[in-house]
Amino acid sequence: MLVHNCIIHYVDKTGESASGQLYLRDSVLPESKVVSQLIEYLHDRFDDATPTARGFFNSDEDTYPLSRWLQEYVEGDVDFAGFSQASTLHLGTLIPKSDAYSGGHVLFAHCSQGITEYLYIAVLQRRSGFAVTQELKVLPSLQLDLDRLGMTARINLSLWETGGESAPYISFIDGQSQVPFAEFVGFNEAPCPSTRCGQSLPTHPGDQNE
Question: Does position 182 have pLDDT exceeding 80, yes or no?
Fold first, then answer.
């Protein structure tokens, strides 16, 4: 797994503001073994899960602008941090539609597995855990919960850039239904063939149908 760019922002909706407070990181995370392990684990967890749906970007880029911003990033007109910041600000405009949503870490990752490039967008929660210090003391620790992918989209960039809608290039998990996540991504669900409905969706090669 090769990680090209990764960044995490934070949405806090625990205060009085209905729209929540956005904390945007200025730059991508430095390349490191920890970041690579994080994205590889996310990739594996997504492969093990059953996506809620798969489909395409909505063609209405004015209402659903994420695909336009992604195209600008792919073409080099904006850097990854700028793309992710604009996208997270857009997510912030949708938060008031959900009273149940309390916030979370918004992860964006551009990575490659073999010859296939992906973009992951995941809204992650934290869970309580424990850490052991060098002095062998046990301390509480907050960790990203990657075992429950409540709101996650995987965009097959390689398939998307070939153009057309011959095969779905977005795999989608929306298990929490607390935020209009599909609206945020600009997701149009593809028709499900009767022979494949209810079955796990293929993930390799390129998330295409067998």
Answer: yes
